């Protein structure tokens, strides 16, 4: 681990988070096309605009708070959670809600009790379930301009694209299991969705986020407790229910948004627990909730709900996990 | 003696690896003291009470002569002062002194004569190990020695044994960046230092000691090792042994509690002192001063000061007479003043930021550091990243403390053990939002102290008020009793029989009652008058009216 020798800053931390996301984003583009980049651009633009607006309305200095980079990180994380065919207004609504309601109405940077990106995501998931579940299948062959025009004008039906959409791996496994099929039969019937050990494409995206996350750990931008406890928690849950669900821990660790959550979402310091032991409890809780919702809830992935539920519990966890001060008996 | 060098077996929580900047001031040997024109010797240089001046204005003083002494009993927290050079006392007046003591105290100003003549009584003590322990303590007391590392606690008080002491720990960590005065003193005066340690061991009546030193000072460690090997066991019955413990270079390894934990593995419990665990700590420069006092009879009148930092042409370690003006010191080291420079007494982490260099060097001045003020960055809100908690050597939750201080929830602040904070500044240093956390904690501490003082005051006032109320009530009661007694006495004297009067009164009342009841009886009759004609009713009314008038007339009569 690197020693902390140089003065730190919020901007540096956020920049490091953005750098660490790059490998995962590249994997995204390789498997799913340009949609994610377009989403990120729309999201970041919206975030900067709404953040400036809110800072202006709240009579706060705009420049230092824009430069802290936190709004940009929120926007990118939300964009990464959206389907790659999400119409522009979906991204816009999600990010604007995250920044305005999720962040600034609580008092801005440092004061929001809930992870703003997840607040935005959950709003969209509840309000626009259809748009939120339509993904372009992996290895599609639509180009940048086609993808862009679809995002900007989604009402114009493009049959060509519609033919290439489908639910994600997690979603498919859940619906089909609900119909009583085993994992192996689902895998056999939807072979396009499965890769070496988890969802096709998703396994690589998760691996790349893991790589970026390890770099963040090395740079000491995040602490080890949250990712480790979260990953152990979700793997343990998967192991316990392996006989019942026939989905392996590996499938869960490298499926959906697991790695993104472990290193980038759950680690949002503002909304997480802040004591060392509290972080273990907090992250383990997210793992449990995420798994339960993922397997038996009404939504394809439970990460967002898990994070928000544990956000609520964070102050209480902090209260009960204060470490003993030097010489305290 | 045999030298033992070992690595620290334990470690303390948190801390920082900082850039040392130590080479800057270690290029040359320690340079000799200059004799300034005037010396300003404050009568108070540490926590506790000022010493009492025993010289008068106009008096000639010689180098090493005692000019202020301890008037009260020996356990008062204070230390004697001596003339750092020969000359004339020109004034005894209030001056500002540097550091934590913000108040100004009386200072003795000496105009030096440049001859630097020693007082004739300054003589070595013969056969120091034959001295009784009390005599040794007395010698240290008379030499005016205080802890030279930080708070300047009088050394003789740390030789008093109320509880048995088992372990002596010598602090040579010097963990703050820039400061090298101890390291260089060790390199040049290791033998004297080891002798000083032997005297302290003798005074404490124990036989072993640890020297804690950071491993970034190999030359000093080597010098100590050689000195220990070259010096013979003291001619006492006990066999002394001195162990050098190398500490990882990690600020604040020199914090007393951190050093004790690193060496012994013990944590000093909250509200306890090291001596409660049988441990006594002394700074290594203090042991040198002790050796000087005993081997040569010299009181503490000069010390090594590191003069270093930005815009100083010749950063160096220098012998400095106590009372020398810092500005003059900086000038001799080729300091070119820049507008946004800042003078710090001590290190960059915990040193006292001074408003100017116009202060005297005191017994605890280990470093005069000049730093260019960093460009002021506005602090962002706390993002609860927890970096501060990771580096906190007291294992506190600085960011939680910060929230509670901001909301003035001082009960919560105390629950989170703010008084364990040693104000080392690690949290400030790593905070990505650049929040001046230590300032908040200092504010909270002083606020809590003030509240407690206020509470004591108001408790006192309330007690007084309650007592007054009680007194007034008692007086009222007593007055009432006295009045009643007096009245009874008076009545007796006049011989009035109150019972006769009462009988008269009740007779009148009974008569009135009778009259009233008769009246009501009269008005109650003639109720068998249902189904009457209007004329009859009118007649009755007239009769009634007349009767009423009549009774009224009767009553009037």
Summarize the structure.
Chain A is an all-alpha fold and 329 residues long. Chain A is 66% helix and 1% strand.
Describe the structure.
The complex is a heterodimer of chains A (329) and B (557). With 329 residues, chain A is mainly alpha-helical. Chain A contains 18 helices and 2 strands. Chain A has helices at 10-32, 35-57, 62-67, 70-81, 88-103, 116-127, 129-133, 144-152, 159-162, 169-178, 183-189, 202-218, 225-240, 242-245, 249-253, 258-265, 276-296, 303-320, and strands spanning 135-136, 165-166. A two-stranded antiparallel sheet of chain A has the order 1-2. In chain A, helix 1 (10-32) packs parallel to helix 4, helix 2 (35-57) packs antiparallel against helix 4 (70-81) and helix 17 packs antiparallel against helix 18. Chain A is globular, with a radius of gyration of 20 Å. Residues 1-6 of chain A have low confidence and may be disordered. Chain B has 557 residues and is of the alpha/beta class. Chain B has 2 domains: 4-332, Rossmann fold, CATH 3.40.50; 382-493, Fumarate Reductase Iron-sulfur Protein, Chain B, domain 2 (Orthogonal Bundle). Chain B contains 13 helices and 17 strands. Chain B has a 5-stranded parallel sheet with strand order 1-11-10-9-12, with helices on both faces. The radius of gyration of chain B is 41 Å and the shape is elongated. The chains are: A mainly alpha (329), B alpha/beta (557). The interface between A and B is large, with 35 and 41 residues.
């Amino acid at each position: 681990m690197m020693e902390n020798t140089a003065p730190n800053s919020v901007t540096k931390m956020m920049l490091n988070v953005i750098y660490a996301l790059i490998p995962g984003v590249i994997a995204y583009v390789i498997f799913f096309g340009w949609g994610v980049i377009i989403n990120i651009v729309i999201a970041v633009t919206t975030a900067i605009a709404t953040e400036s607006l809110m800072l202006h309305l709240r009579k706060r200095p705009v420049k230092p708070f824009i430069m802290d980079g936190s709004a940009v990180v929120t926007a990118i994380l939300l964009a990464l959670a959206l389907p790659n065919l999400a119409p522009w207004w979906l991204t816009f609504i999600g990010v604007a809600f995250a920044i305005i309601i999720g962040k600034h109405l609580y008092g801005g940077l440092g004061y929001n009790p809930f992870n703003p990106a997840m607040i935005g995501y959950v709003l969209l998931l509840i309000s626009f379930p259809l748009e939120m579940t339509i993904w372009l299948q992996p290895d599609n062959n639509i180009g940048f301009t086609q993808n862009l025009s679809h995002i900007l004008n989604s009402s114009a039906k493009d049959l060509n694209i519609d033919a290439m959409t489908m639910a994600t791996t997690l979603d498919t496994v859940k619906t089909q299991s609900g119909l009583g099929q085993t994992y192996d039969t689902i895998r056999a019937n939807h072979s396009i969705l499965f890769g070496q050990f988890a969802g096709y494409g998703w396994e690589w995206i998760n691996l790349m986020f893991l790589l970026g996350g390890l770099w963040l750990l090395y740079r000491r931008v995040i602490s080890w407790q949250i990712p480790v406890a979260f990953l152990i928690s979700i793997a343990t849950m998967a192991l316990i229910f392996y006989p019942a669900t026939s989905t392996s821990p590996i499938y869960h660790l490298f499926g959906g948004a697991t790695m993104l959550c472990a290193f980038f979402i759950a680690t949002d310091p503002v909304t997480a627990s802040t004591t060392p032991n509290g972080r273990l409890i907090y992250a383990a809780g997210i793992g449990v909730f995420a798994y339960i919702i993922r397997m038996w809830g009404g939504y394809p992935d439970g990460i967002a709900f898990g994070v928000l539920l544990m956000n609520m519990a964070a102050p209480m966890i902090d209260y009960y996990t204060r470490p003993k001060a030097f010489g305290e008996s | 003696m045999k030298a033992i060098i070992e690595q620290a077996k334990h470690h303390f929580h948190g801390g920082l690896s900082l850039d040392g900047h130590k080479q800057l001031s270690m290029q040359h040997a320690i340079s000799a003291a200059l004799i300034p024109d005037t010396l300003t010797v404050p009568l108070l240089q540490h926590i506790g009470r000022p010493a009492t001046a025993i010289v008068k204005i106009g008096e000639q003083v010689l180098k090493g002569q005692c000019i202020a002494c301890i008037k009260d009993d020996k356990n008062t927290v204070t230390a004697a002062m001596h003339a750092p050079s020969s000359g004339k006392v020109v004034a005894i007046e209030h001056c500002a002194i540097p550091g934590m003591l913000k108040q100004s105290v009386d200072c003795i100003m000496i105009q030096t004569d440049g001859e630097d003549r020693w007082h004739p009584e300054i003589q070595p003590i013969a056969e120091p190990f034959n001295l009784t322990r009390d005599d040794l303590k007395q010698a240290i007391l008379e030499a005016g020695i205080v802890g030279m590392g930080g708070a300047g606690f009088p050394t003789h008080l740390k030789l008093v044994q109320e509880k048995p002491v088992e372990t002596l720990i010598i602090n040579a960590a010097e963990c703050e960046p820039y400061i090298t005065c101890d390291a260089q003193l060790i390199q040049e005066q290791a033998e004297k230092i080891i002798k000083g340690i032997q005297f302290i061991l003798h005074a404490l009546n124990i036989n072993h000691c640890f020297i804690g030193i950071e491993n970034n000072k190999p030359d000093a460690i080597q010098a100590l090792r050689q000195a220990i090997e070259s010096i013979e066991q003291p001619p006492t019955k006990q066999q002394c042994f001195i162990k050098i413990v190398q500490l990882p270079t990690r600020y604040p390894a020199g914090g007393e509690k951190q050093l004790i934990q690193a060496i012994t593995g013990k944590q000093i419990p909250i509200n306890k002192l090291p001596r409660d665990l049988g441990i006594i700590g002394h700074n290594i420069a203090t042991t040198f001063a002790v050796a000087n006092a005993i081997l040569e009879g010299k009181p503490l009148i000069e010390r090594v000061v590191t003069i270093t930092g930005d815009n100083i042409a010749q950063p160096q370690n220098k012998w400095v007479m106590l009372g020398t003006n810092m500005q003059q010191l900086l000038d001799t080291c080729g300091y070119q003043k820049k507008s946004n420079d800042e003078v710090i007494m001590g290190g960059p982490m915990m040193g006292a930021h001074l408003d100017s260099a116009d202060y005297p060097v005191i017994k605890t001045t280990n470093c005069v550091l000049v730093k260019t003020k960093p460009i002021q960055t506005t602090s962002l809100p706390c993002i609860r990243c927890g970096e501060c908690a990771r580096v906190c050597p007291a294992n506190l939750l600085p960011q939680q403390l910060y929230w509670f201080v901001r909301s003035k929830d001082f009960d919560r602040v105390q629950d989170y053990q703010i008084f364990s904070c040693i104000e080392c500044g690690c949290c400030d240093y790593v905070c990505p939002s650049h929040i001046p956390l230590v300032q908040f904690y200092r504010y909270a501490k002083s606020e809590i102290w003030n509240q407690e003082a206020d509470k004591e005051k108001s408790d006192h006032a309330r007690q007084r008020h309650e007592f007054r109320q009680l007194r007034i009530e008692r007086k009222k009661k007593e007055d009432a009793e006295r009045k009643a007694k007096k009245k009874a006495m008076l009545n007796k004297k006049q011989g009035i029989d109150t019972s006769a009067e009462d009988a008269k009164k009740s007779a009148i009342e009974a008569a009135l009652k009778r009259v009233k009841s008769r009246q009501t009886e009269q008005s109650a009759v003639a109720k068998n008058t249902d189904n009457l004609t209007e004329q009859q009713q009118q007649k009755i009314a007239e009769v009634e009216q007349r009767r009423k008038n009549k009774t009224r007339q009767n009553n009037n009569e």
